[in-house]
């Protein structure tokens, strides 16, 4: 009987180790050699699985973003139905903080990484398409919230919601390691409510 792939060689296990390296040491700490040492898998196994370091980084981000965006979308849709689009934006802003209760490493990685940076290296077409698709998915959510709140999808309206959903959480929650701070969560929620209380100038 043919033996299956050793567990430590399975792509999801390798991605778990790569995510941990990224959170602990930043993107520069995620090398094929470091992953090989951490996972106990030969360099050749890792290159066969991912092709390049840039593909590895993209695959880590894509896996975490897929799971998080599904979680965020479900939370936001429920909040909009129950309390309206302004609350939906506040929930979207706080969603990485609530996600961190069960997925702390993924939340820290997603807060710290700008997806556009992943596309500057030697990324394969499949990985590039996945990163772009997920960026578009987040953009569609932001645009939909702007339309629901102000009946506008112009550049300024969308940019203001993006500030609430993307920029403010990164500044308030990550820069001083406040991902689990209830005070930071309160500040973020109230800041978003204040910002979205009036439509941006046309």
UniProtKB/TrEMBL annotation:
One of its GO terms (molecular function) is DNA-binding transcription factor activity. It holds the Pfam family TetR_N. This is TetR/AcrR family transcriptional regulator. Residues 31-50 bind DNA. Keywords: DNA-binding. PANTHER family: HTH-TYPE TRANSCRIPTIONAL REGULATOR PKSA (PTHR30055:SF226), HTH-TYPE TRANSCRIPTIONAL REGULATOR RUTR (PTHR30055). Residues 8-68 form the HTH tetR-type domain.
